[in-house]
Each structure stands twice: as structure tokens, then as C-alpha cells.
Design brief:
CATH architecture of the largest domain: 2-Layer Sandwich
Radius of gyration: 25 Å
CATH class of the largest domain: Alpha Beta
Helix content: 55-70%
CATH topology of the largest domain: Beta-Lactamase
Number of strands: 5
Largest sheet: 5 strands, antiparallel
Shape: elongated
Strand content: 15-25%
Number of helices: 8
Amino acid sequence: MTDNEPRAHEHFAAIADTLRGGHTVEETYRVLVAAARQVVEGCDRAAIGVLSGEHFTTAATTDDVMRHIDRLQDQVGEGPCIEASAEQVWRLDNDITKDSAWPRLAELVVAQTPVRAMLAVPLVLDGRRGGALNLFADRTDAFTDASTEVAVILASFASVAVSGAAQSERADQLQAGLETNREIGVAVGLLMATHRISSDEAFAILSSASQRLNRKLRDIAAGIVRGSTP
């Protein structure tokens, strides 16, 4: 790194500034993997693999090579992402061409991709093991002690950022649900007053209109509030 290149803390400040405006979980994943190549020295490719039951899905990736390797890990049942997530410790193999800790995966990766070094750091999402931040390089011995330390910090940063985005999404969904329920309540009240019927009868009218018109109940309710007839 030259004196003119941004230092790690400057990269983290830039990531935080990018995410400050509010992003979805998916957008947050994309921001983090894109930043990994800038923050972690030696990293050529990055991905976030999310644990779903016993399988991993690729939440975000810098390229198709990473996506392919994530699929290979899931297929052979071994690899740094799996171990980092399951054991909650970072895993590094700086030269997968010889005596790799994951021989079946390494053989496929060397044969099918340019990747030669793998680093995976666990993510903790909402207090639970949730996957790993995967940082790969196209040359051996790419990751130093210093870059590994930065990777661990980035994974901790990512865990907080993704958890925050998830909480924000849940709050937005709750607010949307409250607004939908309120609008349905208003529509039921209007039907009750207009037709002099019970709340159950009014709701049955809404449900019947929803099924008949193949539209969501909340859309039918919104139409009644605006003056349309179901």
C-alpha cells in the first residue's frame, strides 16, 4: 500500500457512509462484498454465503467464479465457508494446490477456476451463526496476518450492518402490515355503515370480492376507501 492509497479505516468509514442512508439486507450484502476487495489486501474475489439449514446459498458475490465455488462447497460438503460458519472461527488455506484442508473442494477449484487461496470468516446474524464472508485470491500466499485481521474486522462489521438492515426491513414490514390492517378496518367500517351489516358480513364481502376479482384483500379495501365498489 502506498501513502496515497486509502487505509483500512478510511475504507470502513466509506462503507458506513454508503450504508447510512438505509439499505435492504440484499443491498447491504452487495455493498459489503464489493468493498471486501478494497479493504482486504490480497483479496481478488469475495462472496457472502448464508447458511440455510444444512445448505449454503450465495447472498452476494463479486463474480460468477465465487458463485460457482459456493455451489461446489455445498455439493462436496466441505470448505472454508462451511467450517467457518459451523465452528465460528476463521479458516485460511493460502495454497490450495497442495495438502489442502479441503482436498475434494480444492481439486475441483484448482481444475475449474483461477482461485489458489481461500479465507473464510464467520458471520453472526441476529445472534445466530448465519454463514461466512469468503475472500479468495488467484495466487498463493495472498493473505497476510494483517489482511486476515482486517477480514475478521470486516466480518464483524458485516454482521452488525446486515443485522441492522434486517431489523429495519422487519420494522418496515410491520409498518406496512399496520397500514394494511388499518385500511381493511376502514373498508369494513364503510361497508357496515353503507349496507347496515355486521363486521363479519362486511369482511365476507371483501373476501368474496378478492377471490372473484383475483386481487389482494388490501387492494380491494383500498379501492373501497377511495370510493370504488367491490
